[in-house]
Amino acid sequence: MTRRVRVELGERSYDVVVGRGASRELASVIPSGARRIAIVTQPGLPVDIAEHLPGGVAVSRHAVGNGEAHKTLSTIERLCGEFAAAGITRNDVIVGVGGGMVTDVAGFAASAWHRGVRVVHVSTTLVGMIDAAIGGKTGVNIAAGKNLVGAFWQPSGVVCDTAHLDSLPEREQRCGRGEMAKYHFLVGDDLLALDLDARVARCVQIKADIVGQDERESGRRALLNYGHTLGHALESASKFSLAHGEAVAIGMMFAAHLAHALGRIDAARVAQHRNVIVGHYGLSIEVPRGVARAQLLDLMRRDKKAIDGLTFVLDGPSGIEPVSGVRESAVDSAFDALSVP
Known about the structure:
Blueprint: E1 3-7, E2 14-18, E3 36-41, E4 58-63, H1 73-86, E5 93-98, H2 100-112, E6 118-123, H3 126-132, E7 137-142, E8 145-152, E9 157-160, H4 170-187, H5 196-213, H6 228-237, H7 244-261, H8 267-280, H9 293-301, E10 312-314, E11 321-323, H10 328-337
């Protein structure tokens, strides 16, 4: 059984189809009138959506390299050149098939080509299904940091076929669990009481509700960045030897220690974070060797949320919220708790 979650954005609202076999409903979220479809994916991905596309359209395929090293402006330039060769017009559709990296790149390329072409995402990873493919945030990395160049470009539809998760390597599963753990703290739901399809659908619904209220991250949507300030810094500092969800798990534990250092939460709440992140989801909260706090501090100062000094999304008496102007002594205390040199 599949579920449909609506992302409510007025005339730009769209459906996210969730469940085993959801790929069979792909044609239902492809905008009508398209004569060409450009599939952006990665080589070797064991997913073929051809039979689920609407008939009578010309299909071209475009590859993105594996790994964050290919999430670059040069990749966007190459894709746009390929779209030109394939005759992709503003009335056509780009379909991103893959994990969060692919949907970020495909979405950004769609936002730039002809100043905006419709895009549909077929997410194949847990991280993508519950986070990256939904909400229209796209982007690529530059030397200064992760996802610093991009655009908000909402898809016309998203397909999350949980059958694709069966073949995911264990590390990709961990990455997804890192993002999923985040939703425990955002709303307090007992997600562990749900089966996988229902859990994915609930995470999608939480994100859809937040995006519908704050599309461009001017307020409540920043909550979705819980654990991401240090998480993104860790990814960059480790040269992406840490994957996104692994880094976010450490980032959430850091955020709990930071909130405790600021007097926002008590020790019991910190322990609850550890229980969910480590106990329930089996994630590591150890910072890799060779990563120093001075480097992480420098990267966090460049974070997109950093408008007034160091800015973090933190737990507190009113729930999770952005907190700016965080003093470095509290950050040091949180680093001490994680044994970061």
